[in-house]
Amino acid sequence: MDEDRRRFLKQVGAAAxxxxxxxxxxxxxxxxxxxxxxxxxxxxxxxxxxxxxxxxGFAVDAAPHLPQLGVSRGDNVDAMVRSxxxxxGGITRFIRRGDVVVIKPNVAFERAAPLGATTNPxxxxxxxxxxxxxxxxxxxxADNPIESPESCFVRSGIRQAAIDAGAVVYLPRESDFRxxxxxxxxHIARWPxxxxxxxxxxxxxxxxxxxxxxxxxxxxxxxxxxxxxxGRRNQFHQDIHGIISDLALMLRxxxxxxxxxxxxxxxxxxxxxxxxxxxxxxxxASTDSLAADAFGWEQLLERxxxxxxxxxxxxxxxxxxxxxxxxxxxxxEQVG
Amino acid sequence: xxxxxxxxQSLPKKTAAVVAPNRDGTPWYARRxxxxxxxxxxxxxxxxxxxxxxxxxxxxxxxxxPASLFLEMDPLVGFATALSxxxxxxxxxxxxxxxxxxxxLGRVFCNWVCPYGTLHQFVGWLFNIATNHDRLKRNRYRPxxxxxxxxxxxxxxxxxxxxxxxxxLDPICLLVRTVTVAVAPAVDLGLIDLSQRLDPAPFLSSxxxxxxxxxxxxxAGAWFVGLVIVGLVGANLFIPRFFCRVLxxxxxxxxxxxxxxxxxxxxxxxxxxxxxxxxxGCEGAxxxxxxxxxxxxxxxxxCIDDCPEDALSFKLSPPSLANQILGSVKAGTATxxxxxxxxxxxxxELKTPDVPRRRFIFAGVAGALAYPFLRLSKAVxxxxxxxxxxxxxxxxxxxxxxxxxxxxxxxxxxxPTNVLQPSTLKQAGLEGLWTxxxxxxxxxxxxNCTLCSExxxxxxxxxxxxxxxxxxxxxxNVGPIRxxxxxxxxxxxxxxxxxTPCVVCEEVCPVTPKAIGTYDEEFTRWDGKKVTLNKxxxxxxxxxxxxxxxxxxxxxxxxxxxxxxxxxxxxNDRTLLLTGPKLS
Lengths: 336, 584
Known about the structure:
The complex is a heterodimer of chains A (336) and B (584). Chain A has 336 residues and is an alpha/beta fold. Helix content of chain A is 30%, strand content 21%. Chain A folds into 2 domains: 1-47, no CATH class; 69-335, LarA, N-terminal domain (Rossmann fold). Chain A has helices at 2-27, 77-87, 91-94, 121-133, 149-155, 158-165, 240-250, 289-300, 310-317, and strands spanning 69-74, 100-105, 138-142, 168-170, 177-181, 190-194, 203-213, 217-219, 255-264, 277-286, 330-335. Chain A is elongated. Chain B has 584 residues and is mainly alpha-helical. Chain B contains 25 helices and 12 strands. Chain B has helices at residues 5-19, 29-32, 35-55, 69-72, 75-85, 96-105, 108-113, 115-127, 132-138, 147-161, 171-197, 202-206, 222-234, 242-247, 249-257, 302-306, 357-375, 398-404, 410-414, 425-428, 451-455, 466-470, 494-497, 504-508, 548-552, and strands spanning 263-267, 292-293, 312-316, 335-336, 339-340, 349-350, 420-422, 436-438, 485-488, 516-524, 530-538, 561-564. In chain B, the strands form 6 sheets. A two-stranded antiparallel sheet of chain B has the order 1-3. Chain B has a two-stranded parallel ribbon with strand order 2-6. Chain B has a two-stranded antiparallel ribbon with strand order 4-5. In chain B, strand 10 and strand 11 form a beta hairpin. Chain B is elongated. The interface between A and B is large, with 39 and 42 residues.
């Protein structure tokens, strides 16, 4: 008898407990603990918080007395990088001990370095070395290529270069992207951004080759930021100049290096034949990517007789740089 | 403490018991270090090696590893492709690595090397718990186990005609395909998720099969490939080693060969008491308690371990002693060389597979009929082939492709962009099921990549270098390999139909000069805005059909530029233009 009663009470207790639990989870107001109630469907939707980059980007304080454009010409890439950066104030102006530095090369395509479609790995090595000498705690090399990321990094030589110089390579994965808010941007006010390398980053350096581009005519340091975005990038061509101007707004770098060691002067941005490449033997360092790009347009792509692509004017309107590079303080040096 | 003390006190005693010599004077480790232990270690080694080789089948890891080793040393792959092509491609001579041990020792491959066999055995060991009585029953030979010989005959007859289908069920092909299409992507999904939760966990993320890919890899029909392996592995719960005993064509091939094996398990009739305990762990269902079926025996040695009378041994060419027995076995008065015969079952060996000849003939006829049934099913012919049957670069013409491709999907495994997909019935028909085709809505053929041609074990994708693929240097006269041709659907193209600038296709076109040109037009839109429309067109002489234009086209569901197979250079039947090099 006792056993039967006990079993009966247990069963009743269990049933009542389950009913009460289910009732609580389904009916208690959403703010109550353990409530699962979702009266209007809002609670069940995925929530993503948007990121913002620092207000002034990653730029250091302006130094009006220094040249804005450091140009070095020659064949010794390491010395050229040093000289160009020295011209705009030296690496110690930009990088402090303990900085976490993101370097963004252009690794968009799976091409060997001599084909000029990607950043020259020697330039990257020299730059990483320079940054590390200045005491950077962590140097990260990141890009989100068009073609398969690993193949691009391997084939272009950027992967080996980064590893050899002591940087860490960040290849993009689906989960590495977070929505970035770019206040004031026309198209990319909210867009998936390759954020993982930017976790804790204090400085950002862009290093981009000089390339012909089928649609916007020239792809250099400003267009280079394209590789930090994810999502449906193939819609960007519907207003490519607006997008590049947005890119300039999105990322204010510490400084940029325009890698003019080679110039992909036609069949860009992909290239694929040595016949499309000519030696440029030039490197430009600047805190003003528009100025650097305008220099490249005129001096390296040698298109000075054509008007600048529309994105220069659009970005200038927003106060993002000075395409009239000749009006700036330019320091040019022949190295080796 | 008081709880621990008795244990502590008895420890020396226990140790002494462990290291005590056997009763027959052999040292203690002879009890532990059985040949079955060595077998398990060997199986573990080969299973790990198999997974490791699939793991290194990736651009950044392929440092000269023989990535397709298991496929190449699969003697059925070598034999069947030799039937269909009359040649032995590249590394397929490695089949000798398995062939020779089989001719010496029997089907050792099945229980010492084969990773799929190991998987089945392991799953059975883990999940198939049964009473001793049931186990003896389950490990008896059944006529059902003949099926694998019919499967083999059907496949080999088809191979003779030039339709290679062994890959559907060959265990190595099947497992490589399953890992590639279903297991590896699933593992990666889990590892990446886990490594993100346990940040920082660089070790976990370095374990992934396919590092450096942006999106999770997707495969057509992954669910079906996954279902097949779950089903086949699950079958172990009903019939132990179901796949190995019933279906495996490689097992049938090796079983047929093992009639020549010099060694076999032998039963000493003067010791065997017919207790049937040898059936307890018999993997192959080879009847070690009676006339050993050589063709079924996996040489796992479990029977020797389990025999309480020490009546079983592995012997070099043991003679058949049936006619040396004097007296009557039935009456119990028989003697063998003067010693009493205890076992009532006096036969000790059955050399060949126990399959009636007429059934063999039926299987052969079925194979001979299967060939025309499949080949006349339109998908693979000169006319009526699918526009989406786009083969990887270096592939031979379709009829030869079907003579060679074993559907192992190693090419799909190594492909960095995920463009290579296992064909469904839609693209290559039943005959080409799971063969590699390109799906440009997923990926594209990367210009400077020839990895699929490196790993193909059978030459369905011939080994090519970049010069051959791109038509450079020595191959200038032949030109580049074309996979197909891109077409514009002007009705869906943004500049052509929607007054909207675009030409992503031109941007990403990787050849130089570009195969996509534009008609440039200043245009006033419906809303009065002035735009420059670069309306794209194809230059078919330059297009190599790599499909990156389709992959990057913003009209993502049904791209405004798309590649179809016509124009491919692997066969004159499918070319498009009058000009340009033709095959001789």
